[in-house]
Amino acid sequence: MAWRNELNKITLPDGRELVAGSFRGVTFRTVGAEIKVGRRNVVNEYPQRDVPYVDDLGRRARRFVVECHVIGENYLVERDALIGAFEAKGPGELIHPRYGSRRVSVDGDVSVKESPEQGGMARISVTFVEDGDNTFPTAARNTVVQVEVAANALDEATEAAFADDFTVAGASVLATQALKGLTATAAALLQTARLVTSTAGLATLVGLVGGFTGNLTGLIRTPVILVQSLRSMYAQLVQALERPVSAFSEWQVVFAGNSRPAAVALAGSTRARSLANDTARADLQRRLALSNQARALTIALGSTALVATADQALALRQALTGQIDAELELNDPPADVARALSALRAAVVRDVTARAELLQQRASYTPQAVLPALVLAHRVYQDATRSDELVARNAVVHPAFVPAATLEILR
């Protein structure tokens, strides 16, 4: 259809045909139009600098300058209807043969011109400005930050509980036994670092563990500083993680391997104090393992290369919450520690639940014949480049001959 005809008629998606244009449903005829566009640039000119710097603040609001007429025996009625539409509050719908349907507001004055020489007609000049919805920020929980806050709270409660329960004041054997247990703790931390960090990260951890064990004789007499040193090493290890899922598994083992020593009837205060110190050290290890499992899990969920499916995420969540439940039910922690454990559990559940929704779901597919992985990947994913993923996930012996058996795929 020629552009001249378009000036006289436009068709809306719902099938309505309108002559010329309209605003808020009030029709008019138009013989000219102008659109003003651009960028909201702020020019910054500095002393002794010849070339200015321009800040680009985004696209300028589009303005539509419309020249329209109302003409004929009923032009006065049509004129007044248009004036009412222009003076109405809020945005309205502009229908224009060149601009289509736009949500706009009237921008400034509207000029209405009439003359005796041209009776039965009013010339109207109006400027419209595009008007979008006034959206407001919505509150959203940062679940990753909430996990970190809860993990820190657990570490602090653990530190206070350890300081209350651990002391080597008295017989020298208490210090000897404490040194032995805490040296083993540092060695286990270093072993985890060897498995899950880069060479540079490991070198840093080796230095920290060396300083910790070298000062351990003094640290055991200041339990708060001792725990702070351990927390610092864990923080460095978490920062250097290259394999967070492996670290998560290692700390699961640490938790399981540090159960409380069996309670027995002991004769003598020294033996009783030694047992209390062993219990405090085991509690410390387990609770640090729990808080750092939570941190490792948040890191792992940040990469689909590490946690690809919702099922994997939920399995990791179940493993961690299961150990938190065991700590709460079996070891009767102090009230502050119990509250911190419950808060960490809730934060982990919220974080994993929210982020698992963004991950793929596992499904199954059974080909009807032996086919190459490239063909199957294209058929299943419409993406042949995912053939290697299909082969690895299903332990296919040869990618050219994928068996006609049930395969695990991701949706």
Topology:
Elements: H1 3-6, E1 9-11, E2 17-19, E3 21-23, E4 26-36, E5 39-44, E6 53-59, E7 63-71, H2 75-87, E8 92-96, E9 100-106, E10 111-115, E11 118-130, H3 143-165, H4 172-196, H5 199-214, H6 216-219, H7 223-239, H8 244-256, H9 269-300, H10 310-330, H11 335-356, E12 362-365, H12 373-381, H13 387-393, E13 407-410
Antiparallel strand pairs: 1-2, 3-4, 3-8, 4-7, 5-6, 7-11, 8-9, 9-11, 10-11, 12-13
Helix pairs in contact: 3-7, 3-9, 3-11, 4-5, 4-8, 4-9, 5-7, 7-9, 8-9, 9-10, 10-11, 12-13
The major beta sheet can be summarized as: 6 strands, antiparallel, barrel
Unreliable stretches: 1-8, 10-14
Q: Provide the helix percentage.
A: 40-55%
Order of helices and strands: HEEEEEEEHEEEEHHHHHHHHHEHHE
